[in-house]
Specification:
By secondary structure, the chain is mainly α. The protein has helices spanning 16-39, 41-48, 52-80, 82-101, 106-135, 140-169, 172-192, 208-231, 235-257, 271-301, 306-311, 314-334, 337-354, 364-389, 397-429, 445-473.
Length: 482
């Protein structure tokens, strides 16, 4: 099987590094927005007179839109080409940010975030395909690893940029800054990327019904899970999730009966594809739990101020930035299995360390524990992507990359309600209210102890889940063509 990336900018961009810079700037702008927007939620809530849970939907809506549209937008990239989709996505993202910056009400702000979510979905998958195409299929791991550096930079710089800009220019200016980054990316993409050359898939029909079923399935599933995380597993979120399963069944049926589906489901017949996708989900499901639960521990058990809580994740982000391109590049030479298995094993070591935390744990332990988790995620992701794409035809490359990003985002989102449910069930079994918001700094000793017990059970459970991913990643990888 050969992969020519005929709908990508590989052959027509001025240089590989110039094309890669488009991917890097685009993806960093998206990550920067995500980190910065988390910081300004209290300011938004105060201005519009809403509570924090309502304000959180400003970011949740954005994330849901990105996740729901990643797969259809990836398929659109297969048909239209990378340049058209990335330029359009960056422009849409920038306009959404400008709209958010001048929003007179929280409803208009939500509409702006919806627009940004549409642009974000167009950007994320396409940025990866541009990077991979820039360096060629023999350097897939290197390309994905390098892109992850800029994801990490955006995530780390986002909160700092959000706080600094808000302090001196107000929260609305944060959206202007991220819009300017996206506008610069659009200009660079327009000038640096070559035009899409026609190929057979360009004449195929976009499966609009399949896209609608995909969006409805993912929107309902992720919205139901998010509602469960905020208000518990009540009738409404369970009903929404049930409806998503019905829609999902119709999506699978549609994918098997049309000639050019949104996602070629027959790829799952190849074990390396299905097992690698599942281990990807498990990786982010297990390790994202640390990003959710650890701040509760740091803030409410140890009494860390916000800046110190954030500092715990900085060394880990640096390690991820080092591990991602290194493992990606080496996997292009030595195959993926050693890095996917090794990365997940590193993550389990970090989760086990977090499971030992209590009131008397040394201050350095959270810093140390997060390093193998982030480094493991970085070591895993690029080689895992390479394994998946090694058995993916040219005509489905962009759709599959969108699907990979969808799995990553979904794993991160799903980890929150799963972790919260485990912790609150343990707290309830020990006679306390099943609600994480009851945990505050200075709470009674027994309540803190119940939270710590629940946190340990959660980390141990997700360690076991991650070990399943290790087993799946042992499946022999095909020899990559160079």
């Amino acid at each position: 099987m050969t992969h020519n990336f005929i709908n990508s900018p590989k052959k027509t961009s001025h240089s590989p590094w110039l094309a890669f810079s488009v991917a890097a700037l685009s993806i960093m702008g998206s990550a920067l927005d995500r980190g910065a927007s988390n910081v300004i939620l209290p300011n938004i809530a105060a201005e519009f007179g809403s509570d924090i849970p309502t304000a959180q939907w400003i970011n949740t809506t954005y994330l849901l839109m990105v996740a729901a549209l990643l797969l259809p937008m990836g398929r659109l990239t297969d048909i239209l080409g990378s340049k058209k989709v990335i330029v359009s996505g960056l422009i849409v993202f920038a306009f959404g940010g400008i709209g958010s910056s001048v929003a007179p009400s929280i409803e208009i702000l939500l509409a702006g975030r919806v627009l940004q979510g549409i642009g974000g979905a167009m950007i994320q998958g396409t940025a990866f395909i541009i990077a991979i195409a820039a360096f060629g299929e023999g350097q897939r791991g290197k390309a994905v690893g390098l892109v992850l550096i800029f994801v990490g930079l955006g995530n780390v710089a986002g909160p700092a940029v959000g706080g600094l800009v808000t302090t001196y220019a107000g929260w609305r200016s944060v959206f202007i800054v991220t819009s300017l980054v996206s506008a610069a990316g659009a200009l660079l993409a327009f000038t640096a990327l070559g035009s899409h050359r026609p190929n057979p898939i360009s004449n195929s029909q976009f499966d609009w019904l399949g896209a609608a079923l995909c969006v409805s399935t993912l929107s309902a599933l992720l919205a139901g899970i998010t509602m469960a995380a905020h208000s518990g597993w009540s009738f409404i979120p369970i009903t929404v999730i049930a409806l998503s399963l019905v829609s999902g069944g119709l999506f699978v049926w549609r994918g098997l009966v049309v000639d050019n589906p949104i996602l070629n489901l027959r790829l799952f017949r190849q074990p390396i594809f299905g097992l690698s996708i599942l281990s990807n989900l498990i990786c982010f499901l297990g390790m994202s739990s640390a990003l959710f639960l650890l701040p509760f521990y740091l803030k409410y058990v140890q009494g860390y101020p916000p800046d110190k809580v954030g500092s715990v994740f900085i060394p880990a982000a640096a390690c991820m930035a080092i591990a991602s391109p290194l493992s990606g590049r080496l996997s292009d030479r030595f195959g993926t299995r050693i890095f996917t298995v090794g990365g997940l094993l590193l993550g389990t070591i970090g989760l086990i360390m977090l499971a030992t935390l209590d009131e008397s744990s040394h201050d350095f332990l959270p810093y140390i524990a997060m390093i193998p988790i982030s480094a493991g995620m970085g070591a895993f992701y690029g080689p895992n992507n390479s394994a998946i794409l090694s058995v993916t035809p040219d005509s489905n490359q962009s759709a599959v990359i969108g699907f990979i990003n969808l799995i990553r985002n979904s794993g991160s989102l799903i980890s929150i309600p799963i972790s919260a449910t485990i912790v609150t069930l343990v707290m309830s079994s020990m006679g306390f209210e099943a609600n994480l918001s009851a945990v505050t700094h200075g709470s009674e000793t027994e309540l803190i102890a119940s939270f710590l017990t629940g946190m340990r059970v959660s980390f141990i459970t997700l360690t076991a889940v991650t070990m399943v991913g290790v087993a799946l990643s042992f499946y022999p990888n095909p020899k990559f063509m160079r």
